[in-house]
């Protein structure tokens, strides 16, 4: 008996130890107790994103950045690893480093620093191959982990349908039993009451005659304004990118703070103010609040994604200009090398000292590195978005909460329950911002291997900063999705932006020629040629031949077609099983109703009914005198 108690105590202590090892578990539990599970779901999502980015950072750091730092040529040995002579004076200035130029640009943080040697170090580490495979592996891992999370959520939800007894589910399942704060409990009570009023209004709305033509006109007008806003935001971003490219050609000392950060600030400000405009336009549509919320989220997602793609299109224009510029620069470098050889030969004829020909890497002319330029833009966007978010929280949440808290005693009306009141914690907006930022990480990490590490720092500080802001300054959002239903909604958006953010990267890898004098793929026509080079040098001829045949376009197309047909078959099978399950549910409900009606008044009816339901796994074990009430609930 004593051993059993000791063993039980050990197991309990071990479970507590495992819970203590989970990052930020106590913080999230405190928020869950104060605000309920809906607000805590955002921080759980943030912690999950932190874990995903940690894996991406481990891959890029251990297989790309660390090998180059340990075994690659040091700084100053090659032109690509050296700050140009004209930039040396300001290379270590804070303003230059903050803009990720100078010493930061010529470091392992960006693509252009890496050498194109096949092997480096005493281990003969194949860095170009590792760089390419890690980039593809990060994309594949991201798809795998998002799909796995979606599948797990579907399994946790059970795939059931709770729309059959709408009001019954609202009565018995609306309360959040994790709430431990009285004020939050009152807010939750008022929210449930409002949900019932909305549901009753929705039921009665079908019987009320409405001016259909007026509603259609107002909804058309609202969508017209939305499209105007989306178009204007895209034009502003395109214009800002063009101006930033013009500023890049000027002397940095002549530019002010706004000129250096104009493009990043424009994107951040559009992300702040356009959702407010969308909320105003939604007032014209007169949708049900939940439908209006979904429309709002969809429009914000379209805004963020459209802005990102306009930014990519502007970058593609600049990349094409850089590629054209490379041709001229390459010819000039060839001419420069020829002149240097002539000068060296002339010096030998005049003075035959036999001194070796040497030019310092800082003095060697070099071409534009468009890959580093792309990586710098995404790093700047990430850092600028972090600073904008933190300043917004400090001004919009903290100062507003201080004003409401301390001026409420001497004001004409109640500031806490009237205007301006405390700020609501916008779960949907914060999750969408997190998804959008992650899309930038996926898109830019191939050209800036340090980007997952920068994002880890951002998520780490966001966890502490936003936890503090929520506990001190915010109140729960009035209308939110149920946590169990919103997870896959957000994960679906994350999967979509993962797909759309990796397409431009794959296009650049397959279609664009790499820069000729920077990066691990310099000297090749396309980046993916590193695979063919590895097959040619590192595999036996017969194995290389087999792998080339496997990569034949005809075979790849056939495999893709088979996979598409398999997916279609599995999807059709799943739909058939779902329809069969729904039909079985209907039969079970009818059977329950028949059993309840037959046994209600018969002698021993409740006991027989209880036994029948237990055998058919309809109800969990319950006292026999409560069997009839439970049967009515399920019928």
UniProtKB/TrEMBL annotation:
Residues spanning the membrane: 50-71, 125-147, 220-241, 296-316, 489-510, 550-570
Superkingdom per UniProt: Eukaryota
Membrane topology reported for the UniProt record: Multi-pass membrane protein
UniProt KW Transmembrane helix keyword: yes
GO molecular function list: mechanosensitive monoatomic ion channel activity; voltage-gated calcium channel activity
Taxonomic path: Eukaryota, Metazoa, Chordata, Craniata, Vertebrata
CC annotations in GO: plasma membrane
Species for this entry: Sciurus vulgaris
Protein name per the record: Transmembrane channel-like protein
Keywords for the protein's UniProt record, in alphabetical order: Membrane, Transmembrane, Transmembrane helix
Subcellular location: Membrane
């Amino acid at each position: 008996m004593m051993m059993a108690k000791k063993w039980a105590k050990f197991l309990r202590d071990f479970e507590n130890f495992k819970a203590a090892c989970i990052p930020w578990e106590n913080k999230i539990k405190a928020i869950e107790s104060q605000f309920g599970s809906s607000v805590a779901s955002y921080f759980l999502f943030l912690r999950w994103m932190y874990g995903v980015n940690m894996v991406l950072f481990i891959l890029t750091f251990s297989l790309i950045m660390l090998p180059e730092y340990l075994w690659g040529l040091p700084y100053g040995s090659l032109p690509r690893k050296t700050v140009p002579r004209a930039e040396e004076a300001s290379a270590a200035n804070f303003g230059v480093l903050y803009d990720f130029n100078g010493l930061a640009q010529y470091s392992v943080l960006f693509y252009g620093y890496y050498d194109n040697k096949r092997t480096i170090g005493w281990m003969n580490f194949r860095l170009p191959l590792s760089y390419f495979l890690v980039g593809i592996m990060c994309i594949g891992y991201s798809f795998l982990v998002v799909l796995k999370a979606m599948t797990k959520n579907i399994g946790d939800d059970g795939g059931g349908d709770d729309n059959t007894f709408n009001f019954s589910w609202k009565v018995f399942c609306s309360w959040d039993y994790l709430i431990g704060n009285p004020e939050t409990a009152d807010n939750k009570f008022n929210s449930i009451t409002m949900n019932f009023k909305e549901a009753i209004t929705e039921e009665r709305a079908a019987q009320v005659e409405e001016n259909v033509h007026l509603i259609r006109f107002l909804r058309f007008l609202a969508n017209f304004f939305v499209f105007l806003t989306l178009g204007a935001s895209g034009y502003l971003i395109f214009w800002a990118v063009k101006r930033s490219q013009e500023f890049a050609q000027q002397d940095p000392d002549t530019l002010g703070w706004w000129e250096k950060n104009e493009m990043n600030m424009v994107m951040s400000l559009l992300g702040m103010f356009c959702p407010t405009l969308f909320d105003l336009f939604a007032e014209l549509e007169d949708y049900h609040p939940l439908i209006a919320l979904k429309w709002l989220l969809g429009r914000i997602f379209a805004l963020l994604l459209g802005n990102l793609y306009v930014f990519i299109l502007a970058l593609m224009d600049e990349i094409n200009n850089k590629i054209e510029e490379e041709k001229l620069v390459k010819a000039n470098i060839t001419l420069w090398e020829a002149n240097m050889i002539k000068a060296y030969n002339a010096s030998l004829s005049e003075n035959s000292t036999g001194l070796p020909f040497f030019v310092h890497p800082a003095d060697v002319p070099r071409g534009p590195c468009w890959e580093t330029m792309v990586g710098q833009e995404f790093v700047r966007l990430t850092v600028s978005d972090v600073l904008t978010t933190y300043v917004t929280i400090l001004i919009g949440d903290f100062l507003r909460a201080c004003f409401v808290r301390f001026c409420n005693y001497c004001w004409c009306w109640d500031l806490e329950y009237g205007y301006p009141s405390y700020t609501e914690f916008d779960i949907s907006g914060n999750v969408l911002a997190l998804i959008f930022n992650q899309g930038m990480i996926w898109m830019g990490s191939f050209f800036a291997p340090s980007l997952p590490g920068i994002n880890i720092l951002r998520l780490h500080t966001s966890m502490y900063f936003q936890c503090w802001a929520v506990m001190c300054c915010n109140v729960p959002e009035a209308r939110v999705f149920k946590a169990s239903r919103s997870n896959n909604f957000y994960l679906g958006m994350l999967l979509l932006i993962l797909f759309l953010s990796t397409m431009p990267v794959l296009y650049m890898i397959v279609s664009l020629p790499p820069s000729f004098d920077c990066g691990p793929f310099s000297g090749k026509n396309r980046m993916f040629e590193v695979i063919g080079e590895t097959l040619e040098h590192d595999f036996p001829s017969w194995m290389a031949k087999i792998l080339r045949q496997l990569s034949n376009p005809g075979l790849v197309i056939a495999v893709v077609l088979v996979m598409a047909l398999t997916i279609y078959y599995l999807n059709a099978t799943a739909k058939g099983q779902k329809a069969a399950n729904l039909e079985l549910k209907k039969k079970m409900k009818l059977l329950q109703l028949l059993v309840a009606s037959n046994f209600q008044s018969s002698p021993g009816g409740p006991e027989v009914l209880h036994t029948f339901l237990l055998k058919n796994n309809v109800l969990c074990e319950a006292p026999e005198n409560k069997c009839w009430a439970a049967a009515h609930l399920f019928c």
